[in-house]
Each structure stands twice: as structure tokens, then as C-alpha cells.
Amino acid sequence: MRNNQDWHPANVRAHRDLSATVREFEIRPEGGVKPWSVGSHLDVRVEVDGREETRSYSLVGVPGDDAYRIAVKRAQPSRGGSRFMWGLETGSELSIGEPNNHFELSFNAPQFLLVAGGIGITPIVGMAQMLAARGANVQMRYAVRSAAELVYGDRLRQTLGDRLKTFCSDAGERLDIAAEIAALAPRAQLLACGPITLLDALREAWATAGRPAADLRFETFGNSGRYVAQPFWVELPRHGLRLEVPAERSLLDVLNEAGVETLYDCQRGECGLCAVDVVSATGSIDHRDVFFSAHEKQSNQRLCACVSRVHGGGVVLDSAYRPD
Questions:
Q1: Which residues fall within 8 angstroms of residue 13, CB to CB, at 6 or more apart?
Q2: pLDDT number for residue 322
Q3: Does 226 map to a domain?
Q4: How high is the pLDDT of residue 152?
Q5: Within 10 Å of residue 178's Cβ, how many Cβ atoms?
Q6: pLDDT tens track for 182-216
């Protein structure tokens, strides 16, 4: 069960390939663009194997145009969302929600460090543009596997100049997170988006440096984990159910389809609304959220159904359901 969501008709005004695996879309809602702020994301209804599902994509750039811009990475393997989006053509119709922001940018810090990993660049572009336009003390670090994945590199170089540093892992370049944090002024803010491994490393280094937790803001794209997605089973004793979760579907989707109503909102592992209690697990729980702390993840007492998975087995869950 999702919090109230209004859907609006829209169409693809244009699209262009930023790389072999990333495509940018201009989406024009019939009722006009709603006010939004950098860091916002847009929910899109996608069709996956005959089912309607929801995917969230960060809005790229700064407000002011008459269309929304999103960039979609063609995922391999895919749960179906990117496959649907890449199948759209100019003029294609689709349903979208209204912009929502869980990754707000504030301007009350003496210094800002922006960190992006891979497709996590999408919400960071607008932040860099807005901070630079305001004359803020801002630096940016952009890490990718190869130079071909620096999809917004040219735009960011024009915006930031030498305040942007890029790191391509296939060239042996590595982002030294601890050194970057050590160089920051007191009460500087770090805003990051990328895979869960990057965000976990940032959180650990930030805490080790004794920095205030409130000065670290982050968002994940919700589909990256420590293991390649594979099928797993889930048992719900209170419902008398044993379900199979395919590699390309989320636990949340399977629960809701089976009638196990589960509260959710972000579907990105950020809000914690879909968290459920774990009774036991066989194999390893792949916590792909940024809601729980490292200690909470190690305890394996709860998991976020929207993104987390199990590697090499399954999990027994205690849902909120109580029989009459």
C-alpha cells in the first residue's frame, strides 16, 4: 500500500543517448510541469511482463524548463523498468507522479562536497549547477568504471572547472574518501548518490572522522547490492505462505501481488516504510537500503522489502498481519 499518489498523463518529448547504456528523456506532462527542487525524483508507471509497476528516477538539472528530464541506465540484468523506458519513442505516452524530494539541498554550510558514482550522477548535476550559480564553495568527485560513463562530464566541467575531479576505475583511478573528508572545513556538507558500496564507505569514513551525521546526505538508486540478484524464497507463517521471488522482481512486488499488503513509499531503500521483521534466514541477506545503520544490517533483524534480497537461500518474515 503506497501513500497517496496521483498519476498524470505525459508524453516523451525527446530522448537522446548519453552513452551506450544511458539514455536521457524529456517528459512533458499534459497539465504542465509542477514546481520542483534539485534532488527531486519522478515516479513513472512502467509495464513489466503485463504488470504495471512503479520506478523512480531522479530529475536532472535545475527547474525552469517546460519538461522533466531523467536519465535511465539500461540495467543488465533488469527488473524490467529500464527495458520499458528504453522501448519508448518520441511521442510515447506514459503516466507519471508529481516530483517528490527526499534529498533536499540546503545552502547553510561553509563548504559542499558532491560525490557521484555511476548513474548516481543524475540528482547531483542540478546541485552542482545551483551551488555554482550561488557562488558556493563547492567541490565535486565523480567516480565511474570507464570514461564512457562520464555522461554529464562535459556539462559539469563547464560548471565547475577544476573543482570537478573524475575517477575511472578501469584506468586505475581511485577516490580516496578519507582524504577528501579530511580536507573539508568544519560543518561542511557532503551530498552523495551512487551504489550502496560507495555510500556505505562514505558513511563509515564520515563517522570515523567524527563528523556530524546530519552533515552527510545521500541517496541510492536502489538496485545495487553486494551480490548479483538471484531468485530466493520467502515464508510468511502468519499467512501460511511460501513465495518465490524471481531475480528480476523485488520482494515488495511479490508480497503485494500475493495479497500481503505492505506499506511503502520511496522504493529506493531510503524511507524505511516497507521494513519487515526477519524471523530467520538461510543464506545471506543482501541489504541494499540506506535506511538501516551498519549495526542494524549486521543484526539481520529487519529488512527493507523494496530493495533487499537474499543470496543463496531465503528468509522467514513476520509480517504485521494478525488473523481474526
A1: 26, 27, 28, 67, 90
A2: 55
A3: no
A4: 97
A5: 13
A6: 999 999 999 999 988 898 899 999 999 999 999 99
- Cα separation of 253 and 195, whole Å? 21
Q: Would you say 26 and 7 are in contact if contact means Cβ atoms under 8 Å apart?
A: no
Q: In DSSP terms, which residues pair with 167 in a beta bridge?
A: 143
From residue 78, how far is each of 3, 32, 48, 233, 243 by CA, in Å?
Answer: 26, 31, 10, 19, 20
- The per-residue DSSP string of 75-115 comes to -SS--SHHHHHHT--TT-EEEE---EESS-----SS-EEEE
Handedness of CA 25, 8, 307, 122 (dihedral sign): positive
Residue 28 has pLDDT above 60, yes or no: yes
Domain boundary among 220, 254, 276: 220
Going 28 to 32 to 35 to 41, the CA torsion angle's sign is: negative
Find the domain containing 32 and state its range.
8-101
Pair 86, 142 in one domain: no
How many domains does the structure of the chain reveal?
Answer: 3
* Domain boundary pick from 75, 101, 127: 101
Range from 83-97, 131-145, 260-274, 300-314 carrying the lowest mean pLDDT? 260-274
Which of 85, 71, 66 minimizes the C-alpha distance to 28?
A: 66
In this predicted structure, what is the pLDDT of residue 320? 67
What are the tens digits of pLDDT across the range 68-86? 999 999 977 666 789 999 9
Q: How far apart are CA 90 and CA 88, in angstroms?
A: 7
144 contacts: CB under 8 Å, gap ≥ 6: 117, 118, 150, 166, 167, 168, 169
Instruction: Identify the pLDDT of residue 4.
Output: 55
Could you say which DSSP state residue 264 is in?
B
Cα separations (Å) of 27 from 41, 96, 104, 242? 13, 9, 22, 40
